[in-house]
Write a structure and sequence with these properties.
The chain is of the alpha/beta class. It has two domains: about 30-170, 3-Layer(aba) Sandwich (Rossmann fold); about 200-340, Glucose Oxidase, domain 1 (3-Layer(bba) Sandwich). It is about 35% helix and about 20% strand. The protein is built from ten helices and 13 strands. Strands 6-10-9-8-7-12-13 form a seven-stranded mixed beta barrel, surrounded by four helices. A six-stranded mixed sheet has the order 2-1-3-4-5-11, with helices on both faces. Helix 9 (about 255-265) packs parallel to helix 10. The radius of gyration is 22 Å and the shape is globular. The termini are far apart.
């Protein structure tokens, strides 16, 4: 009898524990539900993939809007004329019923929108900041939000290229391993977790002695090609006290070397540190990866500011989220890997 009572109590205790875990899990899921405006303002896209993508995001628990897709492909292959692309973006930013604006893809053409966006700067400053999510060509939009509005934003996967969306694309895989497309091993779940819990990366490699001392500052930057295009213009960011992140793809190592010399020679950047992401193609050989890293290391040896290497951001298999326009802290222990920490972006 005593054994029976004991077993009943144990069973009840286990059930109570399970119930408490389920309640906690439901609370987390409810807390992390997001309303998303999907948009693209760069290169044209395959319209047949929008509904399957939307359905998949809804299955993941998101509320998804596609109301601002407006594609009439321009002569240059952009999704629409400049004015129409800006209007779509402004409508998504101003929409009161969405939490974030998530870009479907990158491509080209976003830089062209900066003058038109500047015309709406005062209007947008009156609004509550709304984060955008994306990278590559979206760097131009990050630049506007971070520098002209003072808003934070998310440098991370686009909605169409990630682990969950791998099945939508016919890109020929080099193996049967899941996730062999661009950013195919970077999960939407991990992005969502970072938004609500913050960032803690422990594998940043210091490329010079200055980097081992650590550094703190607001993150800025993104794609190197887009960032360089703003140097010497009225859209160039003020990097004083900021940490510049840079990545690129499909650019030769000699070109990257030339551009980094340009950044080094520019006398108005004043960044407090640089974090390099991935520059080689995702299927690069060891020799190709090494030559790009050699270029980055040579830059680090020439400058006095801390320089780090973190090839998990960019156009590779991975693309870890980073919060631009928000403080970050890098700490190091000796000459080993360094750690990057950022507080959560959403509550």
């Amino acid at each position: 009898m005593k054994k029976l009572i004991f077993l009943i109590l144990i069973t009840l205790g286990i059930q109570l524990l399970i119930n408490s875990i389920l309640v906690a899990d439901n609370t987390i899921k409810h807390h992390q539900q997001l309303s998303i405006d999907l948009i693209t303002v760069s290169s044209s896209y395959d319209e047949t993939k929008i509904e399957p993508l939307k359905k998949k995001l809804e299955e993941l628990g998101f509320r998804v809007y596609t109301r601002y897709f407006d594609q009439t492909i321009s002569d240059l292959g952009y999704v629409n004329l400049d004015e129409n692309r800006v209007n779509s973006l402004l409508n998504a930013i101003k929409a009161p019923d969405s939490d974030v604006v998530w870009f479907l893809r990158g491509g080209a053409g976003a830089l062209n929108l900066l003058p038109l966006l500047e015309e709406h700067k005062d209007e947008l400053k009156k609004l509550k900041p709304k984060p955008i999510i994306g990278y590559s060509d979206v760097t131009a939009i990050h630049n506007f939000l971070n520098n002209s509005l003072g808003w934070p934003s998310v440098h991370g996967i686009v909605a169409a290229y990630n682990t969950e969306m791998s099945h939508l694309y016919k890109e020929k895989l080099v193996s049967t391993q899941k996730g062999d497309i661009t950013n195919g091993r970077e999960s939407i779940t991990d992005l969502q977790h970072a938004l609500f819990n913050g960032i803690n990366y422990k594998k940043l490699l210091p490329l010079n002695k200055a980097a081992t001392k650590g550094v703190s500052g607001e993150l800025r930057g993104g794609n190197l090609t887009l960032f360089q295009a703003t140097i010497g213009t009225k859209f160039a960011p003020d990097l004083k006290g900021k940490i510049l992140i840079l990545e690129d793809v499909n650019e030769g190592y000699r070109k990257i070397d030339r551009v980094l010399h340009h950044l080094e020679y520019a006398d108005n950047l004043h960044a407090s540190a640089v974090i390099f992401g991935q520059f080689h193609n995702k299927r690069a050989s060891d020799a190709e990866r090494l030559i790009f890293k050699t270029v980055l290391k040579a830059y680090a040896d020439r400058v006095s500011i801390p320089v780090y290497y973190f090839p998990y951001i960019g156009h590779g298999y991975h693309n870890k989220p980073l919060f631009l326009g928000k403080q970050a802290k890098l700490t190091c222990h000796g000459n080993n890997y360094c750690q990057l920490v950022q507080d959560k972006l959403l509550k």
